[in-house]
């Protein structure tokens, strides 16, 4: 009986799990509304290090459940360590994160447009790059 009652609740929880988590980007240079073409936090230095820390939190709360802890894919979603660091890779990264991915009506990855700030998205990108070095 307990099982029958618990089952629907458990399913609802599994769905609710996906709620995007805001990322506190205090300490990073604010970027405004114009999207950068390339990662503004890529260059080595104190801001790069801060972006890695902030990006780790953003990644763990928004991406890890599909793309894997420490950016090591368990096979459910592509291994993001394989992304390069060219301008084209940056464009692909932001278009995917903002727009998500779907096949027909089935959402494979939710869009993060309007949910994560530009600062948070580039910080996550910086963290991912740091995991592939
Ligand atoms: C619900 C699971 C899920 C979540 C959450 C998720 N993704 Fe994805 N992501 C996927 C899947 C599945 C794909 C592959 C889509 C396809 O087949 O086109 C993908 C593709 C991508 C790609 C393209 C990779 C490539 O090699 O082409 C990027 C970049 C990416 N995700 C980044 C992120 C980031 C950053 C986050 C967190 C902000 C995130 N994803 C959250 C499931 C997810």
Provide the fold topology.
Elements: H1 2-16, H2 46-62, H3 64-67, H4 87-99, E1 101-103, E2 106-109, H5 118-131
Antiparallel strand pairs: 1-2
The structure holds heme C.
The site of heme C has 17 residues, from helix 3, helix 4 and strand 2.
Keywords: Electron transport, Heme, Iron, Metal-binding, Transport
InterPro entries: c550_proteobact, Cyt_c-like_dom, Cyt_c-like_dom_sf, Cytochrome_c550/c551-like
GO molecular function: electron transfer activity; heme binding; metal ion binding
Mean pLDDT: 88
For the record, the CATH class is: Mainly Alpha
The profile of the biggest β sheet is: 2 strands, antiparallel
Radius of gyration: 16 Å
Shape: globular
Please report which band the strand proportion falls in: under 5%, 5-15%, 15-25%, 25-35%, 35-45% or over 45%.
Answer: 5-15%
**How many β-strands, per DSSP?**
2
Listing every helix as H and every strand as E from the N terminus to the C terminus, the arrangement reads: HHHHEEH
Query: What share of the residues lie within helices?
Result: 40-55%
